[in-house]
Amino acid sequence: MSRRRLSAAVAVLALAGAVPALVPATPASAAACSSYPSWVAGKSYAAGDIVRYTDGKAYIAEHANPGYDPTISTWYWEPYGCDSGSTPVGTFVVTEAQFNQMFPSRNGFYTYGGLTAALSAYPGFATTGSDTTKKREAAAFLANVSHETGGLVHIVEQNTANYPHYCDWSQPYGCPAGQAAYYGRGPIQLSWNFNYKAAGDALGIDLLGNPWLVQNDAAVAWKTGLWYWNTQSGPGSMTPHNAMVNGAGFGHTIRAINGSLECDGGNPAQVQSRVSTYQRFAQILGVDPGGNLYC
Q1: Which of 122, 126, 117 lies closest to 285, judged by CA?
Q2: Where are the domains of the chain?
Q3: Residue 208 buriedness (CB in 10 A; 0-12 / 13-18 / 19+)
Q4: Is CB count within 10 Å lower at the N or C end of the chain?
Q5: Strand (E) positions, the chain?
Q6: For this structure, is 62 an active site residue?
Q7: What strands, in cross-sheet order, belong to the sheet with 50-52?
Q8: What's the pLDDT tens digit per position in 207-220?
């Protein structure tokens, strides 16, 4: 089940310590877009800063930058929900009742509270764009999570024979928790020492030294899943978050997560399983799943 590897290009970044680290930000409160300070060209902004652009919309800095234009530099800025949509600000588009309907047999570890507590790490997740876009992204994330974990049943990788294989000793930091410590854990089955290092650096948590946090702390587990979803493109050409927000379609999320093994005819049954789950979750949320479902 554990196939969560960085692409070769991102792995090189991880080696160099250049994997971008997003600073956790506080979720939006029920404030109007106009309550945020106006964006100023050339002003230095830190990750997590929220501004109101000239179009009247709010944007959050995903990475520190010297006042780049929020509508041009999408690497540095992310649209930030305020009072422009019908979904209450700060409210996850999936209710606890809907979450339980999606995962009737889930492991008690994967709590709804753990998920909502993790959302502050990536405030653009399921809050960007129209209500339809928000719900599609939430459904897409949870559908892939369901596929990876057998319906949120498995916390750790089931094939223990794989455990010693996920240590890349060529990394300068090695495997301080032990060679067999970096097996798949969490909702997107984070694995390999370099992924634990990159995710931990981004989240401000020492996951390289203590990878067991991912299987012992529900909020940390969910954050690692959101880290991959929002920042990693894997074998794909875009992150799953960008695929859903920009309308590329659910198929691109599959490619980003496990495209090297499943897409292009690699395993059509697995792809169909993901698509069917996404369609079912979209129906629960009352939203059309959109097009481009397959990879």
Answers
A1: 126
A2: 1-27+90-288, 30-88
A3: buried
A4: N
A5: 50-52, 58-61, 77-80
A6: no
A7: 50-52, 58-61, 77-80
A8: 999 999 999 999 89
What pLDDT sits at residue 63? Answer: 77
Q: Which fold has domain 30-88?
A: Seminal Fluid Protein  PDC-109 (Domain B) (2.10.10)
Amino acid at 85: G
Confidence at residue 65, expressed as pLDDT on a 0 to 100 scale: 86
| Domain topology for 1-27+90-288 | Lysozyme (1.10.530)
Tally of CB atoms within 10 A around 2: 24
Give the pLDDT band of residue 290 (cuts 50, 70, 90). very high
Q: Are 39 and 54 in contact (CB under 8 A)?
A: yes
Residue 34 CB neighbours (<10 A): 11
Q: Using one digit for the tens of pLDDT, what is the confidence trace for 105-144?
A: 999 999 998 899 889 889 899 999 999 999 999 999 999 9
